[in-house]
Specification:
The complex is a heterodimer.
Chain A lengths: L1 H18 L5 E7 L11 E8 L4 E7 L17 H5 L13 E2 L5 E4 L4 H6 L4 E10 L5 E10 L8 E4 L6 E6 L2
Parallel strand pairs in A: 3-4
Antiparallel strand pairs in A: 1-5, 1-9, 2-3, 2-6, 6-7, 8-9
Chain B lengths: L3 H22 L1 E6 L3 E2 L4 E10 L8 E2 L6 E3 L5 E2 L2 E5 L4 E7 L3 E17 L5 E4 L11 H4 L5 E18 L14 E5 L11 E8 L2 E2 L4 E6 L11 E4 L5 E5 L4 E11 L8 E12 L3
Parallel strand pairs in B: 2-11, 11-19
Antiparallel strand pairs in B: 1-3, 3-4, 3-8, 5-6, 5-9, 7-8, 9-10, 9-11, 12-13, 13-14, 13-17, 15-16, 15-18, 18-19
Organism (chain B): Catenovulum agarivorans DS-2
Protein name (chain B): DUF4198 domain-containing protein
Pfam family, one (chain B): DUF4198
Chain lengths: ~170, ~280
């Protein structure tokens, strides 16, 4: 399992470098492979909060395939994200929402560098929340200071249950 | 040796007292299946019952005919799939608008107690019934012994929200004892504190007694009640110790009743969900 994750991480990182050539910030989120009888891919939200809890949305992965927006019915299970602005939004959101993803390391498809460069200098928290049907919920955070100093990168945090390694790094 | 008779005579009054105390403590509640919902539209199902143990229906069903649901824009909604069982009533509510819905049962009126010529205690309206056909004027003898007339208001409610919480449906009617949220009732989280204002007929209800209990009572030995009193502005705040479904009970009494009543009473209760952070 570990080897598989590392292998995917390597391949994904390569692929991302090619696609996001202009971007020099990259966020990767690992969804762990779980040994459970009934597995559903988790809903995941990624957002940035300033010290006043003003939110910049980065990514929301949910069941976008279901008819009549039925998949939106479980967005509230991402409890913190829902409270921190998710409930104000209408779905889907261009460039933010995407389909759920299975086990492995996934690169967030959002121009982080461009978005973060537009924000005022200061302390922020990058939050990553995952909630899984018939499973659990986990919330991770990475404190960051803007403008970001590439020397502090990569910044990582590792989940215990619903999330694996989350990594914010610079690409050359 | 103790005779059986002595034990019986000693125990009986105690048993009766216990029964009486329990009868007074019965709580009427409306409990939603969920309170914070997402989606274009969604459903919430409700249980309504009168019981001691929160939120376990074990005494009598709450009659659903007095329960009304209001959409975020104030429109009255139809309850779906209404059914009454032995211990609880159940109904569904379809949420189609974004915002906060109020599900409530409220009543207010004059109540009189007196003794008739034979010294028997009388009540109007009769216990557990509403005044049918009769008015205070026709039903209550004005020169009766020990006549006490009070105005009492009662409200039992809960709230659910689809999407972003709204406040239109939370506006007080300025009748009876009501809760005005400072903290939105569908935005409550464990370890955080929440603030509310109690109003009696639209004015601050100072010195009202507040009792807060968390559900799942059956699975713990102590009630762990939180007891508070509202300040001069009718205000109270509570820090939620844990996530769970909570029951808030507030009672208020003063002598500022309109004639013929001399005493004004208000009873308020609500079911609030507190989510884990």
């Amino acid at each position: 399992m570990k080897i598989g994750t590392l292998f995917c991480g390597f391949i994904c990182a390569l692929a991302t470098t090619a696609v996001h050539a202009k971007s020099n910030l990259q966020l990767e989120v690992t969804i762990p492979r779980l040994q459970v009888a009934e597995y559903h891919q988790p809903y995941v939200a990624v957002w940035l909060e300033n010290s006043q809890r003003k939110v910049t949305q980065i990514a929301v992965w949910y069941d976008i395939e279901m008819e009549n927006g039925k998949g939106e019915e479980w967005l509230a299970d991402l409890r913190q994200w829902w409270r921190r602005g998710g409930r104000k939004l209408s779905f889907p959101i261009d460039g933010i929402t995407g389909a759920t993803k299975g086990p492995g390391m996934h690169t967030v498809d959002f121009d982080l560098s461009k978005s973060l460069n537009q924000l005022p200098a200061g302390k922020y928290t990058l939050r990553i929340e995952a909630a899984r049907e018939v499973g659990g919920r986990e919330l991770l955070q990475i404190p960051i200071t803007l403008p970001i100093d590439n020397k502090v990168l990569p910044l990582t945090v590792e989940g215990n249950t619903e999330l694996g390694l989350v990594r914010l790094s610079a690409t050359q | 040796m103790f005779s059986k008779k002595i034990i019986q005579t000693t125990l009986l009054p105690i048993a009766l007292m216990l029964v009486t105390a329990q009868t007074n403590a019965h709580r009427a509640w409306i409990k939603p299946s969920e309170t914070v919902l997402s989606g274009e539209e969604n459903y919430v199902t409700f249980d309504a019952a009168v019981s001691n143990t929160l939120f376990i229906p074990e005494y009598v069903a709450y009659r659903p005919n007095s329960i009304a649901a209001y959409a975020p824009n104030g429109n009255k909604l139809t309850l779906e799939n209404v059914a009454t069982g032995k211990y609880r009533s159940t109904f569904d509510l379809k949420l189609t608008q974004t915002g906060t819905y109020r599900i409530a049962s409220a009543s207010a009126g004059i109540r009189a107690m007196w003794r008739d010529d034979e010294g028997k205690r009388k009540m109007w309206p009769p216990r557990g019934q509403s005044a049918q056909g009769e008015t205070f004027e026709t039903a209550v003898p004005k020169n009766a012994k020990e006549l006490r007339v009070s105005y009492s208001a009662r409200r039992v409610e809960t709230f659910v929200t689809l999407g972003e919480p709204s406040t239109e449906s939370l506006k007080p009617t300025n009748k009876g004892l009501e809760l005005v949220p400072v903290t939105h009732p569908n935005d409550l989280y464990a370890t955080e504190s929440a603030e509310f204002i109690m109003l009696i007929d639209g004015s601050p209800a100072a010195g009202a007694e507040v009792e807060i209990n968390r559900g799942s009572m059956r699975y713990r030995n102590q009630q762990q009640s939180i007891n508070l009193t509202t300040d001069e502005n009718g205000n109270f705040s509570v820090t939620w110790p844990k996530a769970g479904m909570y029951f808030i009970e507030v009672s208020y009494e003063d002598d500022k009743a309109q004639a013929p009543a001399t005493k004004r009473q208000g009873k308020y209760s609500a079911t609030f969900e507190v989510l884990p952070l």
